[in-house]
TrEMBL record:
The lineage of its organism: Bacteria, Pseudomonadati, Pseudomonadota, Gammaproteobacteria, Cellvibrionales. Belongs to the KduI family. This is 4-deoxy-L-threo-5-hexosulose-uronate ketol-isomerase. Binds 1 zinc ion per subunit. GO terms for biological process: D-galacturonate catabolic process; D-glucuronate catabolic process; pectin catabolic process. Pathway: Glycan metabolism; pectin degradation; 2-dehydro-3-deoxy-D-gluconate from pectin: step 4/5. InterPro entries: KduI (IPR007045), KduI/IolB_isomerase (IPR021120), KduI_N (IPR027449), RmlC-like_jellyroll (IPR014710), RmlC_Cupin_sf (IPR011051). Its cofactor is Zn(2+). Keywords: Isomerase, Metal-binding, Zinc.
Length: 280
């Protein structure tokens, strides 16, 4: 088996408030994304986003449909974003090859039948982080490099949240149905992401932390702003944030993360902010 998957359902915020540490992790944390020569997928019923990873080492990995999709091929009714966080890689879509280096993205539109992932060098394998959502129309497949990103400078050293947001798959850069993705890099010495925190009940979100030293951790905050909980996360793990939850984190060291969203609109700026002194 090249593809391993699991299915997650939608927790209610009233039930969430009673979860213990283990249950919180079972429902929201995606602990393993990358496995040599495998595709790992988590099908969340939160806006039906699939969060996953492909790490081709010794072979080319084809994106396979999974049983819950009941589809002839993976992208029959879906769109896909893939961001490489490893060594140089190649994404092939219906016979066309795209060279995807570290921190570069691919958007693959609905209807693409054959998607393949490979690495240039098995000693430095590519690691493609995937987000996929249902799509109602076909948008053109294209590569999105760092130079194409819309860049936002956020935060300040004084509040330990200085960071650069690179919006890769957003409506100003690429045409998508509902998927948005990008990458946020913290400045050295800054540890807080997404602070001040926000919610956006119009969209769910998934975060994937990387470039975090193996012996360090990110403490990820979630929940309604008046009832927050935390999940301790390691390098290259993801977390699912339902539309009722905020999503913010603090690291014991420097890190970068990829965010991906799906839902009602494609308006990145549509957020309801919560100031730090309002959180509970
Ligand atoms: O550091 C940040 O702030 C973010 O990266 C915020 C995310 O992009 C986000 O939550 C978008 O809704
Ligand atoms: Zn958000």
């Amino acid at each position: 088996m090249t593809t391993l998957y699991e299915e997650r359902f939608v927790p209610h915020p009233r039930d969430y408030a009673r979860y213990d540490t283990e249950r919180l992790r079972e429902e929201f944390l995606v602990p393993v994304l990358f496995d040599a020569d495998k595709t790992r997928l988590t099908y969340s019923h939160v806006d039906r986003m699939i969060v996953g990873g492909v790490m081709p080492v010794t072979k080319t990995i084809e994106l396979e449909s999974i049983e819950p999709l009941k589809a002839e091929f993976f992208l029959q009714r879906r769109e896909l974003g893939a961001i490489n966080i490893g060594g140089p890689g190649i994404v092939e879509v219906d016979g066309t090859q795209y060279e995807i280096d570290c921190k570069e993205a691919m958007y693959i539109g609905r209807g693409a039948r054959m998607v393949k992932f490979s690495s240039r060098d098995s000693a430095a394998p590519a690691k493609f982080y995937l987000n996929s959502t249902p799509a109602h129309r076909e948008c053109p497949t294209r590569k999105v490099g760092q130079e194409d990103a819309k860049v936002l400078e956020m935060g300040a050293g004084e509040t330990c949240n200085q960071r650069v947001i690179r919006q890769l798959l957003v409506k100003e850069v690429v045409d998508t149905c509902q998927l948005q993705m990008g990458m946020t890099e913290l400045a050295p010495g800054s540890v807080w992401n997404t602070m001040p925190a926000h919610t956006h009940s119009r969209r769910m979100e998934a975060y994937m932390y990387f470039n975090l030293p193996e012996d360090q951790a990110v403490c990820h905050f979630m929940g309604p702003p008046q009832q927050t909980r935390l999940i301790w996360m390691a390098n290259e793990q993801a977390v699912i944030s339902p539309a009722w939850s905020l999503h913010s984190g603090v690291g014991t060291s420097n890190y970068t993360f990829i965010w991906g969203m799906a839902g009602e609109n494609l308006d990145y700026t549509d957020m309801d902010f919560v100031q730090p002194n309002e959180l509970r």
